[in-house]
Amino acid sequence: MRAPISIVIPTLNSQKTIKKTLVSLFEGIEAGIVRELIVVDGGSSDKTKEIVLACGGQFTVSRASRGFQLSNGVNLAKGDFIFILHSDSVLEIDWSKNIKKYFNREAGYYCRLSFDIKHPLALLTSTWANVRSKIFKLPYGDQGLLIPRKLLIENGGYSSIPIMEDVELALRLKGKLYGMPIVITTSSSKYSEQGWFRKGRKNIIILIRFLLGADPNKLYNDYYKS
């Protein structure tokens, strides 16, 4: 029996974090549940490619747009289940033992978010993310997403948009997304650099604008310009 999970990770200049992400996945390969590590890169100028290849990943280059990158990765994937991860997120030890009970062909599952530092604002941010996901069924990409390949394709896959591709997909999959107790730890560096309140406020504003129908390309430009 072939391993059921294809891992898909979008990257762009991710050399500082991608190795830890990939290493956390090795236990899934050893357990026989991870079939392939697919990294879709947006044109990195650092050593992301070298690190991915050294870790045994499949590396392909795409236009720098996370939705487009993920769409390409899904098209390359051969597993019955696709596990979408960000390049700065690390799965907890023994995740490969716990994830098997979520091999449900009718639903997708996201992880419980935490940050890599102990700080009141980190706890507040992760708690909000977990509450938002549970109540509003709007998990973000940094929470990971395990989803049957067939279900994803039948629902249109990822839209080729540069931002909010995770929310856009979640809106189409409402009623079919659930939390699982596997903890995923994401990097706090962007929050620390920009300020927890500032980045948190920016994220909420972008989400509201997207839900009100704003153009994702304009949102992307506004988000990264600021």
Overall tally of domains: 1
**Level-1 CATH class name:** Alpha Beta
Per CATH, the architecture is Alpha-Beta Complex
Query: How many beta strands in the DSSP annotation?
Result: 8
CATH superfamily: Spore Coat Polysaccharide Biosynthesis Protein SpsA, Chain A
**Outline type:** globular
Main sheet properties? 5 strands, mixed
Secondary structural class: alpha/beta
Strand order of the largest sheet: 3-2-1-4-7
Rg, rounded, reads 16 Å
Separation of the first and last Cα atoms: 49 Å
The total count of helices amounts to 11
Task: List SSEs in N-to-C order.
Answer: EHHEHEHEEHEHEHHEHHH
Q: What characteristics describe this protein?
A:
3-stranded mixed β-sheet; alpha/beta; 5-stranded mixed β-sheet; Spore Coat Polysaccharide Biosynthesis Protein SpsA, Chain A; 226 residues
Write up this protein.
By secondary structure, the protein is of the alpha/beta class. It has one domain (5-225): Alpha-Beta Complex (Spore Coat Polysaccharide Biosynthesis Protein SpsA, Chain A), CATH 3.90.550. The protein is 42% helix and 21% strand. It has 11 helices and 8 strands. It has a 5-stranded mixed beta sheet, sandwiched between helices. The chain has a 3-stranded mixed beta sheet with strand order 5-8-6. Helix 3 links the parallel strand 2 (34-41) and strand 3. The longest helix has 17 residues, at 120-136. The chain is globular.
